[in-house]
């Protein structure tokens, strides 16, 4: 995982500024900070120090409603002419895709110009992108926000990996993936042995790599193991904007349309057309919540040729119109 690191005695403590924005993900935040604490304890040295920062120095409530006291406002943590360069970690969560704060964006850019590593957890990648800090960089984001991010920032290379490290940028899909990201950083700075010991303290049996999948395999999510069914669902999920006909789908997986329908009814309790429609409408719902795309654009992005058909299908599935869903999201 890493080359021979410098000994802990020779390495100055790395300072990390955790910038908390409203409704940040508590699980991603604690998964990132706890490995640092454990690394300090196991090494017997202060390898890491950290400060919690908010825009105005006031407590910030996480998405679970728990408010966290911070150490400083961003104005008290400006780049100086001396001292070690901290790592900046923006902690995002629910609603980060709509976060707008020019002062925060400018603060992040000032640290970037000084050469600081700037990263984000969970949906914080939206904030970095809006600040212009992911242009020309590879990034990742939580799987649920991936479609919305791709629509909002089509020129940014985004992946579905657990975490991405691209030069002086790092992003993390959220949840416990933040733990794997920090274990990777610990291994690079202080060796695999310490990272493994920290992992054991966290009751984690292995350190996942950046390219491990975010989501459970389809066979686990669906509770089925039929290879033809899994293949059909994978094809559906990859063809949302331009849905395939049932005849084409059956042909791709080597079945007749009648066989395909029997397969879906037996294992999923619905027809392929019903399952496909539900998948597209779930994607539409994510886009309504996570983007400012016009409703007609959301309809087109999920394979509907008319707004009226989209509205009818959406109301039948969710009990409200797309417009009402957008109002609720706002």
From TrEMBL:
Keywords: DNA-binding, Transcription, Transcription regulation. Signal peptide: none annotated. Residues 230-328 form the HTH araC/xylS-type domain. The keyword Secreted does not apply. PROSITE patterns: HTH_ARAC_FAMILY_1, HTH_ARAC_FAMILY_2. InterPro entries: Class_I_gatase-like, DJ-1/PfpI, Homeodomain-like_sf, HTH_AraC, HTH_AraC-typ_CS, INH-QAR. The keyword Transcription regulation applies. Pfam families: DJ-1_PfpI (PF01965), HTH_18 (PF12833). This is GlxA family transcriptional regulator. It comes from Benzoatithermus flavus.
């Amino acid at each position: 995982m890493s080359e021979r690191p410098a000994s802990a005695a020779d390495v100055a403590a790395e300072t990390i500024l955790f910038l908390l924005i409203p409704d940040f993900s508590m699980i991603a935040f604690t998964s990132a900070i706890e490995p640092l604490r454990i690394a300090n304890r196991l090494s017997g040295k202060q390898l890491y120090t950290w400060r919690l920062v908010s825009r105005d120095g006031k407590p910030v409530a996480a998405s679970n409603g728990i408010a966290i006291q911070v150490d400083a406002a961003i104005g008290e943590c400006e780049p100086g002419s001396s001292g070690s360069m901290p790592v900046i970690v923006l902690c995002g969560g629910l609603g980060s895709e709509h976060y707008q704060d020019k002062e925060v964006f400018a603060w992040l850019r000032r640290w970037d110009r000084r050469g600081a590593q700037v990263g984000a957890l969970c949906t914080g990648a939206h904030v970095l992108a809006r600040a212009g800090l992911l242009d020309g960089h590879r990034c990742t984001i939580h799987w649920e926000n991936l479609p919305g991010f791709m629509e909002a920032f089509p020129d940014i290379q985004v992946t579905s990996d657990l975490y991405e490290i691209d030069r002086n940028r790092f992003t993390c899909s959220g949840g416990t993936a933040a733990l794997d990201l920090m274990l990777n950083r610990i291994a690079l700075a202080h060796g695999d042995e310490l990272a493994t010991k920290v992992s054991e303290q966290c009751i984690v049996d292995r350190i996942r790599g950046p390219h491990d999948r975010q989501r459970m395999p389809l066979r686990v999510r669906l509770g089925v193991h039929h290879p033809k069914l899994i293949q059909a669902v994978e094809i559906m999920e990859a063809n949302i904007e331009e849905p395939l006909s049932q005849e084409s789908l059956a042909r791709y997986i080597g079945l007749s349309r009648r066989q395909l329908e029997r397969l879906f009814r037996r294992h999923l309790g619905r027809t392929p057309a019903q399952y496909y429609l539900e998948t597209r409408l779930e994607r539409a719902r994510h886009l309504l919540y996570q983007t400012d795309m016009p409703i007609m654009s959301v309809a087109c992005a999920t394979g509907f040729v008319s707004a009226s058909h989209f509205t009818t299908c959406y109301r039948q599935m969710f009990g409200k119109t797309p417009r009402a869903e957008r109002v609720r999201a706002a």
